[in-house]
Amino acid sequence: MLEAAYAYAHEPSSINLAVLSHAAEPPRQELLRRLNRATGGTHTIVGMRVKLLDALRKDIELTQVDDDFRHLLSSWFNPGFLELRRVDWNAPATLLEQVIQHEAVHEVRDWNDLRRRLQQDRRCFAFFHPAIASEPLIFVEVALLPAMAAEIGPLIDTNAAPGDPASYQTAVFYSISNCQPGLRGVSLGNFLIKQVVDKLAVEFPRILEFCTLSPIPGFREWLKSRVVRGFAPADKRATPRLRKALATVAPHLPTITGAVGELRNAGTPLTPLKRELTTLCAAYLLGVGEENGTSTDAVAKFHLNNGARLDRLNWCGDDSDKGLKQSLGMMVNYVYEPKRIERNHEQFVRGKTIASSEVEDLV
């Protein structure tokens, strides 16, 4: 390999580059390719990576091995090879069971719950790979509504009557779940949402608004750390309003970061602190006080990097135990505007969060 490197340094031609690339490739990549050719090989390799990721927690030296797995899996699971399918109530029972099992955002409580999520005013779409045709890779759940949703409760209410198709004007993505842990780090969700937006736009021309109703999983822990650390004096975005909100919330920190049961008590401080908490949550989503100027929230980074616009905060959007534990019950809407997705993505990559004036005004 050193000889190939010297040759390329002396003469950086395409031939010498090809020789160097071949020499630098780890032999285990070829081993994985050969394994992939065997019957069931793709599924086996995905399963091997699950075990590798587990071992990686204890042995950082396995990082290079994981890089090889991720490199090959990213090629094999390129969206161009994947099939987008709608999952409805007539799907095989084994597939429906997998949807129940892998739903990671809002738990499917029983079969009646799943049935409601698959009725005429709901959609569930999944990516499938030809080599693992019976198992979804990732799926997204969508509610077809007259307007943007602010609460998750009505969307997953098993007793709610299906809406009138003539009223559909907004498609709300309210859950996206990965089904294959071995594909962690392989980009699938961003392509899934974009393809579903295109598909729904054709099926329902009257739907002009595509948005999410998303959790804010890291806010509660961020709030705890901010009360301890505060905002640095040099942080120009940490306005006096933000500092005042943080100071007001601080005395109530033991209760609002304690057990979920405490938050449900009659004396909970959440409602009196609504203004301050929404202000601080907006700061969290905008990345105020972060070194790179962007939010550390995984869901926010996913949607903003995917070309969505941060649009609206919703107080008491999810009052479940999980919602209170993650974000004190708040949820957020991200908006996907088909004509602006690429521009928004480019601006976010360059370090500028795409946000609505409503969220920015809070801070």
Tell me what you see in this structure:
It is a single chain. The chain contains 17 helices and seven strands. With 363 residues, the chain is an alpha+beta fold. The protein folds into three domains: 2-76, Butyryl-CoA Dehydrogenase, subunit A, domain 3 (Up-down Bundle); 80-212, Aminopeptidase, CATH 3.40.630; 219-362, Malonyl-CoA decarboxylase, catalytic domain (Aminopeptidase), CATH 3.40.630. Strand 4 (170-178), helix 8 and strand 5 form a beta-alpha-beta unit. The N and C termini lie far apart (55 Å). The model has no long low-confidence stretch (mean pLDDT 90).
Structure in a nutshell:
The chain has 17 helices and 7 strands.
Q: For the residues shown, what is the average pLDDT? A: 90
CATH superfamily of the largest domain: Malonyl-CoA decarboxylase, catalytic domain
CATH arch. level architecture of the largest domain? 3-Layer(aba) Sandwich
Round the Cα radius of gyration to an integer and report it.
Answer: 23 Å
Order of helices and strands: HHHHHEHHEEEHEHHHHHHEHEHH
Low-confidence stretches: none
Task: Please supply descriptive tags for the structure shown above.
45% helix; alpha+beta; 363 residues; seven-stranded mixed sheet; Aminopeptidase; Butyryl-CoA Dehydrogenase, subunit A, domain 3
Secondary structure: elements and pairs:
Elements (H helix, E strand, L loop, with lengths): L1 H9 L3 H11 L2 H11 L3 H16 L6 H14 L6 E4 L6 H10 L8 H7 L4 E7 L9 E8 L24 E9 L10 H15 L5 E4 L6 H11 L10 H10 L3 H4 L3 H4 L10 H13 L11 H8 L3 E6 L6 H7 L3 E6 L4 H9 L7 H6 L1
Parallel strand pairs: 4-5
Antiparallel strand pairs: 1-2, 2-3, 3-4, 5-7, 6-7
